[in-house]
Design a protein that fits this description.
Elements lengths: L1 H6 L4 E9 L4 E9 L6 H5 L4 E7 L7 E7 L5 H5 L4 E8 L2 E6 L3 H13 L27 H12 L11 H8 L3 H16 L8
Antiparallel strand pairs: 1-2, 1-5, 2-4, 3-4, 5-6
Length: 200
């Protein structure tokens, strides 16, 4: 990929999947962004490539399954258990990837890559943002909703089979069938979202 991407500096090569077959071979699935010709023959011409198969996916950019010798620069990722996120890219001889790892592990990775002859450049380190837990408000039922829902529970409206119909429940509550139905639907939605506790 390094030599091929240098031949075509404007081509963005995206690695979508990769699998280490053994200590020396890797199988990768790549997509050539902006590619219209079939690149199979040219890829097969590289000495470290032993197999190229074009995968045609309807309405998508063609992908290629490439079996090649594993690049030395991939070994440190494996040894340090650093998992690059897909897709990774090659462009004009440069390999770009992102990963989630402690800063100390990233520093060891950079040092290891230098030892195998690569010239790594750490472009940015961002703190991992933990999702801010949203408060789950409780007790958001209005007094009317609380009364309707409690009555529905006590009269068996939610049992299977129902012990009371919506019409009969509305009569007991002295409200229209549509207003009771609407109020219970709002309560059910809040329950489904975890916004309220069941009345005890």
């Amino acid at each position: 990929m390094n030599g091929f991407s240098r031949r075509h500096p404007d081509l963005v090569i995206r690695i979508h999947d990769s699998m280490l077959l053994d200590e020396r071979r890797v199988l990768v699935e790549v997509e050539m962004e902006g590619a219209s010709p079939n690149w199979s023959k040219e890829l097969e011409g590289f000495s470290d490539v032993s197999l190229v198969e074009q995968i045609d996916i309807p309405h998508r950019t063609p992908r290629y399954r490439v079996l090649s010798r594993r690049l030395a620069c991939f070994r440190p990722f494996h040894d340090l258990a650093v998992l690059p996120s897909d897709p990774r890219t090659f462009q004009n001889g440069f390999y770009h990837c992102e990963t989630i790892a402690p800063a100390s592990q990233l520093r060891r990775l950079v040092a290891s890559l230098k030892r195998v002859g690569a010239r790594p450049r750490l472009t940015s380190i961002r703190p991992l943002q933990s999702p801010v837990p949203r408060p789950r408000p409780r007790g958001l039922l209005t007094p009317v909703q609380q009364r309707f829902f409690t009555e529905a529970l006590e009269r068996g409206y939610y049992e299977v089979p129902r012990r009371i119909t919506l019409s009969r429940l509305a009569e007991r509550l002295g409200r229209s069938k549509s207003s009771v139905s609407h109020a219970l639907a709002l309560v059910e939605r809040k329950l489904a979202m975890g916004a309220v506790d069941l009345p005890t």
